What does this fold into?
Amino acid sequence: MLNSDRRSTAALQLPSPRPIEFCTIELCPLADGHFAVAVKHTVFDDAAFELVDQDIASARAVTLNEVMALVADSLRTAFSPLSPPLPHLL
It folds into this structure.
């Protein structure tokens, strides 16, 4: 049986897509046994239609505990409601 009520299908609205936003954690072992750590935030720029990276933190760490503390602190600071907005969100 065919659906003759076209109003019900025309009223169907798809939700708007969520903006693309994610963080990347780069961890690299160094020759001296330490670690290089970088935390980046990536968003989609609607106007330029491209992904834009922003460095949140970059440091050297001696232990994996220091690495985890650096990552946690940088993400907590960057996304805290009290922190200033990231430049791409202005």
About this structure: The first strand starts at residue 21 and ends at 29. Residues 27 and 62 are 12 Å apart (CA to CA).
